[in-house]
Amino acid sequence: MELDMGWYVGILLGVVLIMKWGLKSVNIWIYERDLGKTKRALLPPGDFGWPFIGNMWSFLQAFKSSDPDSFISGFVHRFGSTGMYKSFMFGSPSIIVTTPEACRRVLCDDDAFKPGWPTATLELIGKKSFVAISYEDHKRLRKLTAAPVNGHESLSIYMQYIETKVETALEKWSQMGQIEFLTQLRKLTFQIIMYIFLSSESEDVMEALEKEYTTLNYGVRAMAINIPGFVYHAALKARKNLVTILQAAVSERRKKREAAQGMSKKDMLDALLDTEDENGKKLDDEEIIDTLVMYLNAGHESSGHITMWSTILLQSHPEYLKKAKEEQERIVKEMPPGQKGLTLREFRKMECLSKVIDETLRLVTFSLMTFREAKKDVDMKGYIIPKGWKVLLWFRSVHHNPEVYPQPKEFNPSRWDDFIPKAGTFLPFGAGSRLCPGNELAKLEIAIFLHHFLLNYKFERNNPTCPTIYLPHCRPKDNCLGRIIKISK
């Protein structure tokens, strides 16, 4: 009887293993069968996961745990430190790239790679936004928006506005008692980007837009299940609401411009309405709205999160807090007599603060990955990336590489003393032709906030050991609940 039971268990176990193998082979059969024997042999090692969902379940499990890096470490444990792994992510056969050299090549080789964001993500961000358009269209729009966002003259103009808003916000928060620090910072950075793009300070419009963006962002890295009750379905509704609000703003601006011929430009929306190609063709409403959706989102989310992390990381490391504060005090003392407020001259002197910001960008890695697609078969590191396959550049692995950054999990701004990162090892804003066009503006916002915070305030968290959530972006579960306290002098 015991022998029979052993046979039954053995047979059952064998059936289960065969079924598992069969299920795990479905994606391989679908996506590798047309590659041919030679190409299949040159694919990086990896795992296509389960039918249709691929590796998304294990990805989401890892990033909803306290150890998000377990996703990649799982590949490394099973297949070795190859730096490239085949997978099935976001509905497509993909190659995950984790080394600086490979990331740099993919980002900079526009002949071999193009943007490869998942279709579900493009539905949220916009098919005519920066992340989706062709190289030529991207080049044209980037040229249009680079100077108004990142140019020296524009940054000088924005500084006064940003500084005023920061000082007002800090004073207000210090009187509010308990606040969600991250939530308030996101509102502040959203107000700033709204002013730059739409010259708007309407509380109602800003609150409506910011609320929809919060919902939209949760859907960007969720499974694309468009059924009521799922995150992605809610994100699509948020996208629709955003388009409605922005369409009204664009239509109203067009009417005002038609009624007042020759009116001067006052913000980025005017610049977008005026731009035209060599044939005199102007952007249509869909192109303008998708550009606004992307810029307004990217322009406040990253700045708000990195400002929060910089603040609490400094406060938890008193030695660096002391250095950063002393630098800001010295900068104020060295200001010319009669000067009111910061200028770009002072900003360029914030060497210690710049290292703090870079270290926060590295440690947090706000954008954990980005997407490309192979335009042709590409040989890389002895492997092949087939034409049409997605390439996931895993920035988190690059920034936490112990060979480049010793003790990578530690917050250590001093690591940037006399250290110039090699190409591909520091990618908080990407690289190549699609480098984030608002990188200087983001750093400026963060530096101005930290300048005034360090001089006049401190932050007391309710729960310093609060668990961290990693999707859609790295943040404390309680949104950094605490009190801003004004320092008496």
TrEMBL record:
<dbReference type="GO" id="GO:0051777">
    <property type="term" value="F:ent-kaurenoic acid monooxygenase activity"/>
</dbReference>
<dbReference type="Pfam" id="PF00067">
    <property type="entry name" value="p450"/>
</dbReference>
<protein>
    <recommendedName>
        <fullName>Ent-kaurenoic acid oxidase</fullName>
    </recommendedName>
</protein>
<keyword id="KW-0408">Iron</keyword>
<comment type="pathway">
    <text>Plant hormone biosynthesis; gibberellin biosynthesis.</text>
</comment>
<feature type="binding site" description="axial binding residue">
    <location>
        <position position="436"/>
    </location>
    <ligand>
        <name>heme</name>
    </ligand>
</feature>
<keyword id="KW-0503">Monooxygenase</keyword>
<keyword id="KW-0812">Transmembrane</keyword>
<dbReference type="InterPro" id="IPR017972">
    <property type="entry name" value="Cyt_P450_CS"/>
</dbReference>
<comment type="function">
    <text>Catalyzes three successive oxidations of ent-kaurenoic acid giving gibberellin 12 (GA12), a key step in gibberellins (GAs) biosynthesis. GAs, which are involved many processes, including stem elongation, play a central role in plant development.</text>
</comment>
<dbReference type="GO" id="GO:0005783">
    <property type="term" value="C:endoplasmic reticulum"/>
</dbReference>
<comment type="pathway">
    <text>Hormone biosynthesis.</text>
</comment>
<dbReference type="GO" id="GO:0016132">
    <property type="term" value="P:brassinosteroid biosynthetic process"/>
</dbReference>
<dbReference type="GO" id="GO:0010268">
    <property type="term" value="P:brassinosteroid homeostasis"/>
</dbReference>
<dbReference type="InterPro" id="IPR001128">
    <property type="entry name" value="Cyt_P450"/>
</dbReference>
<dbReference type="GO" id="GO:0009686">
    <property type="term" value="P:gibberellin biosynthetic process"/>
</dbReference>
<dbReference type="GO" id="GO:0020037">
    <property type="term" value="F:heme binding"/>
</dbReference>
<keyword id="KW-0479">Metal-binding</keyword>
<keyword id="KW-1133">Transmembrane helix</keyword>
<keyword id="KW-0349">Heme</keyword>
<dbReference type="InterPro" id="IPR002401">
    <property type="entry name" value="Cyt_P450_E_grp-I"/>
</dbReference>
<feature type="transmembrane region" description="Helical">
    <location>
        <begin position="6"/>
        <end position="23"/>
    </location>
</feature>
<dbReference type="GO" id="GO:0005506">
    <property type="term" value="F:iron ion binding"/>
</dbReference>
<dbReference type="InterPro" id="IPR036396">
    <property type="entry name" value="Cyt_P450_sf"/>
</dbReference>
<keyword id="KW-0472">Membrane</keyword>
<dbReference type="GO" id="GO:0016125">
    <property type="term" value="P:sterol metabolic process"/>
</dbReference>
<keyword id="KW-0560">Oxidoreductase</keyword>
<dbReference type="GO" id="GO:0016020">
    <property type="term" value="C:membrane"/>
</dbReference>
<comment type="similarity">
    <text>Belongs to the cytochrome P450 family.</text>
</comment>
